[in-house]
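Regression test attached.
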Amino acid sequence: MARPGLRESALFDRNAIHEIQRAAREGIYDIRGFGAKRPVPHFDDLLFLGASMSRYPLEGYRERCDTDVTVGARHAAKPLHLDIPITIAGMSFGALSAPAKEALGRGASEVGTSTTTGDGGMTPEEREHSRMLVYQLLPSRYGMNPDDLRKADAIEVVVGQGAKPGGGGMLLGQKISDRVAEMRDLPKGIDQRSACRHPDWTGPDDLEIKIHELREITDWVKPIFIKVGATRPYFDVALAVKAGADAVVLDGMQGGTAATQEVFIEHVGIPTLAAIRPAVDALQDLDVHRQVQLIVSGGIRSGADVAKALALGADAVSIGVAALIALGDNAPELDADYAEIGSAAGFYDDWHEGRDPSGISTQDDELAARFDPELGGRRLANYLRTMVLEAQTLARACGKSHLHNLEPEDLVALTLEASAMARVPLAGTSWVPGA
Amino acid sequence: MSALGSGLDAQEIDLAVTPLRELNAALHAVGEDGPRHWRVLNPRGAHALAAGIDAPIEVDVEGHAGYYCAGMNKLATVRVHGNVGVGLAENIMSGTVVVDGSASQSAGATGHGGLVSIRGDASARCGISMKGVDIVVRGSVGHMSAFMAQKGRLVVCGDAGEALGDSIYEARLYVRGAVAGLGADCIEKEMREEHLREVAELLARAQADGCDPAEFRRYGSARRLYNFHVDNAGSY
């Protein structure tokens, strides 16, 4: 271990040295799951002001603070009515075990929100246990079929993902079990690298026609979302609206992934905090803010994060990594198991290897059998309820009777970067850099 | 539905007076007792024409169709007596889609089953990510056809453009004419007796007369890129 006199380089720190040595040994980039681990400006850099002389709060346990949100009423005959503004992000069967997918559906349904399929199609387990299920249309189209399209409650056209804007999916051979291979029409055990571009449309003009086709196939009943990784949010959101989206899912660079190159996770895309205001600008400029819902994801951990995202103009948020942790991933009681595979509870991110001792990010039947979907679902529901209670606490303190009444004026920033990105004043000043 | 009329054999819908939505809704609601044969007049390049059918009916489109004609088709036979735009029969599950003219990009993209028969040419990315569909093209196909093709058969009676079968999985490709170039991990393979029979059967199903199966060459995956190895990094 380092001791006085042994000075660690800030530039070539232990992680950098380890990565050089690993690359020299293996000759391939590092692949891992989870999201960006580097520090970037985030919701922690914002504070709520709360009520004071100029405004009054609502009573914590007595006065209502509503949390519901309707998503997709712009064009769809049957929009989603969510009881809480926190949804479960797209995660595939393949990346996750079938019981884990079931647990996500159970937990989400218990608190009246939606869950989402992933790159691999819809499993009967998740459909059965998800009261509201969003069906993703991805470039690979693995498992895509019109029957499941009609069974879905909404459709999400995935253009990009915060962990890898411009990149395709990845599921390595260890996780291509018989069932996964069958659902994806692939040989068992191969490394699956799915496409980064859709096979039958290029650009927003084509996408508008594609969305029209999806609406025709489903008789204009289902809401259609467009998911983008946060890169150029103003233009991407404007083009998504133009293409006919009912809702836009905006995934910041901290957004999770089941398997992506580390260099991609840490070096492409912009932080969630930096993406929200330009996205809201686009919606407001087109006069569709609150008509086309903005669902923000990427690094949402707590009710404070939820409340801050909503205050900046989001209609809802979505969680992935946090949901897996709530299910039991990286649990401290599994520390010895994580140590056996060269990791530790709280650090495990090799979700692509399929050896997850929690039974969540695996296709190994024995490991998956360790996971109890009922217990996992209860934990997820508890976690979602806690986040909602936290967000309500903050909103009431700001005098808001609905989470959507939170606004940028309720916030200040702790750092110049956060102030500039969120466009709220630096705490104690009236100064917003760049305003 | 005032614009609906019955021809001698077919239920007719004239898109000059009937909205596309009304046509597709009627095709989706056809059930077991509805008309078995439909004729669509004045399609005028409409997009998503006859998309999402899930019934063993026949649809004749009397003219040109736009993007995603017969998209996600199940069971139906859709015949287009004209040309079609991008994404013909994308994600087709079963049934047959026949185009008398030519098709734009991504014909038969991601199709899981059924037959797509194109009597003219198909543009780029024909059969991209195909997952079990059979595609027969009487003319030629453009570049990047059968890109990441997973399952199914693509028969091209004419020529194929650059990068045929790039990153192909287990689909089988048969080309009678010249191939401008093969994509990553796509190689020519031996044409054995069972492949001659396969081509003959596909040509017959597509009613593509005048082609001798012996004139075709077979292409498929070398399977070198199925599991990453650093020595193959240059192939990516």
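Expected vs. actual: identical. Helices of chain B lie at 20-28, 193-205.
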